[in-house]
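Ticket opened by: R.M.
Priority: normal
Category: complex prediction / small molecule

The reporter submitted a protein together with 9W4 and asked that the result be attached to this ticket for the collaborator who will pick it up next week. Submitted input follows.
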Amino acid sequence: MIKYKVKDIKLAELGRRLIETEEPEMPGLMETRRKYGPRKPLKGARIMGSLHMTVETAILIETLKVLGADVRWASCNIFSTNDAAAAAIAATGTPVFAWKGETVEEYWWCTREALTWPDGQGPDLIVDDGGDATLFIHKGLECEKALKAGKANKALKGLKAIKALMGLGDLSAEENALYTEIANALKSDPDWFSKAAARIKGVSEETTTGVHRLYQLEAKGELLFPAVNVNDSVTKSKFDNIYGCRESLIDGIKRATDVMLAGKNAFVCGYGDVGKGCAEALRENHCRVRVSEVDPICALQACMAGFDVGTVQDALKWANLFVTTTGNVDIITAEDMAKMRDQTIVCNIGHFDDEIQVARLMAWPGVRRTTIKPQVDRFTFKDGHSIYLLAEGRLVNLGCATGHPGFVMSSSFTNQCLAQMLLWEGGVKGVIRLPKKLDEEVARLHLAARGAKLTRLTKRQADYIGVPVAGPFKPDYYRY
Ligand code: NAD
Ligand code: 9W4
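Result attached by the on-call engineer:
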């Protein structure tokens, strides 16, 4: 059994310097260490993580260790690993299975390695991002049961038996890699998944997609262990959507283009949380900003914030920059791009890759593509005008920059730590959000770093507004 697999363990010293530099930017995690560390609330807990192996995640891992946990890690994306951060963690003796540019086969191998402790057994707790570790356990148990029920047919073994008994037709490369690792786990122990599922006390899930999968499993009565939806904590979603994008949109655009934003006309498609952050950031960079919306409430909010509200169509001859933030499809069509002003920059920070019609742009009659550098393409149309497309229409803050700042990730990951402690304490049933008191605790742990001093309610004031002196301070339906 190998202890870790990273790109190059010699990158550990660089990784350590990056981690040390980032620690003060993640005050929530550092405060969590100081406040809860001495009690070792996660003592004895085996935690498996499936979450982008970045510098920020390294600080999450080391926080979980300070809380007493025994940790193993894999990335939840084949491209997102910071190899130096991965090496630094592996060098401390914490098993990491992640490198930038994994194949899908390697990805599922890494996931299984991170799920398998030296005694062959699985974790007590999972930190998941996108739900792949949770999927592995759930699909694996289905396969284990199918194999047991179909025992009679001894001729078929491993992946072939699983495919036959589960009625799986043509599998994608991704599915094939998943089921191959499930077959490998069952080869090591025919009861591996039932034992693993029985041991797991819960999962905390980071993203919308993963949370959606959890609620679906719960609705079908198939959820094997309790789950905490970290995504919908106020201190996760507001940071990830508004404050994170407010910083990382401009970062992505500037790294890609070095363009002067002041005085330019910027158009933001969608004025939800991400759109609000983007529109504000562009205005603060002295752009003239116009937004589009389908929802009258968000459109009116934009008006009240002093933004013009209009349509993409009407802005084609006005804007120098388009940013999509809607989470929807076909927001900027190839026809739109064919009509834009010369030198317009087009990028997306919302839905992974469907907001801008990239495939249709590439196939547009007479269009010529020039790659300026990775993630920056110029498309020149027959009439001679050009547009610049960033990150091939995928998330510009990840494709052209390094995502959110550490402070934003600190807010998300402090939720993860509190969720893990809650699950390890026991008593969670089904899928829950983190109780508001803990959401408030995440915020509280970040205040000192920004020099904020809270006012304390008097008993009379607390009674008057009907809340406990120590919180929670708002009802669950309150919108921040
Ligand atoms: P949201 O629902 O708050 O906002 C989206 C807005 O787009 C809504 O107000 C909706 O009315 C509007 N909209 C939908 N269709 C539209 C259309 N055709 N034209 C104009 N407006 C339209 O969602 P959000 O939290 O702002 O997230 C948006 C997207 O950003 C999601 O896909 C989310 O996953 C993604 N996201 C990206 C990052 C990142 O780092 N890149 C971070 C957080 C979220
Ligand atoms: N990163 C990522 C990086 C490169 C990359 C196909 C080739 C998300 C959240 C956090 O997804 C992340 N390259 C890709 S996809 C891709 C994705 N491709 C696509 O063609 C190039 C990612 C969370 N986060 C921050 O935001 C900051 N620190 C964090 O941990 C990280 C990475």
